[in-house]
Write a structure and sequence with these properties.
alpha/beta; Rossmann fold; 2 domains; UspA; UspA domain-containing protein; Universal_stress_UspA; Rossmann-like_a/b/a_fold
Length: about 280
């Protein structure tokens, strides 16, 4: 995959996890890493230049420390300190990159409210795949989960997920979810068996078509197919909780809509069951 790996670095502890994830990927793929940190908040107030200068110096020292860890791992590394809006600067930096990696301080159910508004906006606006790393020990997860719905963006998500699963030596868990037609309460308490069977069959067919040819490109990749009934984001979140990574596709946005994601991508990023990649 062309381009280097961009990592957004902050003073939060999760940044080390994001850098670690990037180091592992760069080592296996022989890619370089660029560490970027953004100093924000400048409004042009009198005396601000001194404060901004001190912040930039401290930020560069932070990047230098992380860069040493990357270099010690044998990965080519560069650093960059930017000034301005972090979302805008990271979206701009994504142009031409292989992947943009950021961290989120959301630590899972029971740890407080869902976080990651900046992460959602960055994932929506970036021009390359965005990987969001949660700030917690993910344990011994297995497999790379990818959401499949038969759309064009699904193809890119499948390819990214298959490549990551192959890199990690993990199975690819391809998940398609179907949802019964929503009816007013008590209008249809029991769906006809034929309808349910047809929904299952049609979704299985979509999944099979979406995965056609994948085995020829990745002959050593084990592919697990799962067709489930329910709400897509809930099903994906539940399955991904035991996985190394979950990958979803999203349509590229422009103009005022560029910082909006589809509901499935947004819900996954809001709750981060594991390392989550958003691909367009």
């Amino acid at each position: 995959m062309a381009g280097n790996i961009i990592v957004g670095v902050t003073g939060a502890s999760v940044s080390r996890r994001a850098v670690d994830w990037a180091i592992e990927r760069a080592t296996r793929r022989r890619q370089s890493i660029e560490l970027i940190s953004v100093v924000g908040g400048a409004i042009g107030a009198i005396g601000e230049a001194e404060v901004l200068g001190a912040a930039q110096t401290a930020t560069q020292q932070l990047l230098d420390g992380e860069a040493k860890r990357v270099a010690d791992a044998g990965v080519p590394v560069s650093t960059r300190v930017e000034s301005g809006n972090p979302v805008t600067k990271l979206v701009e930096a994504s142009a031409g990159a292989a992947v943009l990696v950021i961290g989120s301080d959301y630590r899972g159910t029971g740890s407080g409210p869902a976080r990651g508004v900046h992460g959602i906006r960055i994932a929506a606006g970036a021009t390359c795949p965005v990987v969001v790393v949660p700030d917690r020990d993910l344990g011994e997860g297995m497999g790379v989960v990818v959401g499949v719905d038969g759309s064009d963006v699904t193809e890119h998500a499948i390819e990214f997920a298959a490549s990551e699963a192959d890199r990690l030596g993990e199975p690819l868990i391809a998940v398609s979810v179907w949802t019964p037609v929503n009816t007013p309460r008590n209008a249809m308490e029991v769906y006809p068996d034929l309808y349910l069977a047809n929904m299952q069959s049609m979704t299985e067919e979509v999944l099979a078509l979406s995965l056609a040819g994948l085995s020829s490109r990745y002959p050593d990749l084990r592919i697990v197919r799962r067709v489930e009934r329910g709400h897509p984001s809930q099903v994906l979140t539940a399955i991904a909780a035991d996985a190394r990574m979950v990958v979803v596709g999203t349509h590229g946005r422009r103009a005022l809509a560029r910082f909006l994601l589809g509901s499935i991508s947004q819900e996954l990023l809001s709750h981060l069951p594991t390392v989550t990649a958003v691909v367009r």
